[in-house]
Amino acid sequence: MRYILLISILLSFTSIAEELLAPLELYANNPEISLMTMSPDGTRIAYKTIQNDRNILVIKDIATGKTLGGLALDGINAQEAYFIDNFRVIMRAFEYKKVIGFRDKNNFSAAFIYDLRSKETRQILIPGHGIYTGQTNVGSIVGLSPDKKSAYMPAYYSELSGASRFGEGPVYTLMKVSLETKRTPRHLRIGTHDAIDFFVDEKGEPLARERYNQKDALHRVQSYVDGKWIDIFSENTPFVHRSFVGLTPDRKSLVMTMTGENDRRQYFTMSLKDGTVSEPIFSRDDADVESVFSDLQRVVYGVEYSGFKSSYAFFDDKLTQTFAAIQNALPENNFTMVDHTPDWKNIIFKIEGGEQGGEYLLFANNSFSFIASGRPNVSAAIVNPVKEYSYKARDGYKIPTLLTYPKASFGKKQKLPAVVMPHGGPESYDKIRFDWLSQYLASRGILVIQPQFRGSEGFCATHLRAGRGEWGQKIQDDITDSITALGKEGKIDPERVCIMGWSYGGYAALAGATMTPDLYQCAISINGLSDIEEMLDFERKNYGEDSSTYRYWQEVINRKNLDAAFLKSISPINHVDKVKIPVLLVYGSRDRIVPPEQSEDFYDALKDAKKDVELLRIKDEPHSFLRNESRLKTLMAIDTFLNKHLL
Description:
The relative contact order is 0.08. The chain contains 12 helices and 35 strands. Helix content is 19%, strand content 37%. The chain is an alpha+beta fold.
């Protein structure tokens, strides 16, 4: 009966009449509701919403729908929110600002606390106030005191008022920070210059710390025993590949994820006593452990597996069975767990896929009730279907893929115009969700192809490693071969195909325009790479030649063989003479992941070669466009470009 009730709720979202072409704003606008979280007693929710073009944190009573409080989030981009009790909400946010010790503006992370009773908010840990001034990331919380009056937060600390640049500089340590007053935080003398993480017990006492020495490429974990730090794990590695993500409920072991013998990322435990590693605890042959679920004390109680749809496993078998039954009842939809009460009697889900654009449902007493729509103006009538698909690349390698069909064309035999949209990363992957770019494209009658080329995460370590050293080569072939496969099946018109992507996907779009110029009718790159030599130089200058970040990119791009001739050969900027199609370049002016010069230089090279190219600069936007107006400008430019060159 509970699933019949759920289906009836979902059907009630459908409206009858919609314009043939929905307004671009419906796709460009951010969800009106996001970051939803629930109070420990299950009576209240908090979420971020947009009111009069301002981001607002709203707290509501679930039963009555009454608004209990709110906070304007001006100047910050909240990414996480959670209740620590029924009255206080902590938010982790990012702000783009000038930081002492840095020449340019930087993305700055911080944690804020809002008290529903006093209606006051403040930043919890502030550079220069008891901690080193020149740091940009002070928003992480690794534990709370038993009375929840204090938080344990890692930060850089210096005895010299946080301003010293002499010797080895400040140490990364754990600070005990008051959640009630503005008094100076107290530093725990457990830090080191190469520390990267800390774990504490239920009383806030240190249990373990993780360290990574960039220069020596030494990764280790130390356990705190009788006042001394003892190595329980040590490994020389060019970049960290074991993730220590939490504690077992008895706090006797760390939870670690890494690639196991079956070539899947799995869940293991490591004894704090002697470093003994367990057999895999959560393990599947068809999916990686993507993330773990833990509470505010970092105690782990389950995992999320990789895949186009979310799936879960818990220590509590009943929870695992419940989640599986929910997904099986509506196989076309993707259920994502958003939050839950500590006793698991109340769970909030977000549902996407099928005909849903992001609806929040409360699961309690074995039934669902509707809480809110993340996109209230996006009805089921205009959500285009997303389907799983696979094809074989030219060497027989299987490539998992998502296809977003125009709703009016789904199930009909016709050759559609297509946009190939490779994801960023490149070690990332796409999921079934309301993707604003895919949904926009499908609304214009275009079949959207999202190939999970070799090198994508989530499809086993073999698939991931198969893409290393294959930029502009086999990865690009995988993308190309999606057009061949769908063309042979009669699903697309091979004479009307465009390639579009963001970040690495933008690189793939420019590689398509230069390496296979006869395949596409146009190319669109958003914050894309054009010069791989310049990209590596940027990473080296920013992070250092001995950094794990720089070593990682060396490995991913060409397995550490940074031959100049090879890097030139896979850089689109060196092949602009081969471009035969119109190109649209879009970039954010404050992108710190892919510098704007990557787009600007490619534009100049194309203009010098007298090629058909357009450039759109989105002012004051980072790598991911945050503002509705910026996303709308992007869609307007894409819409005009595609109408001219593809449709």
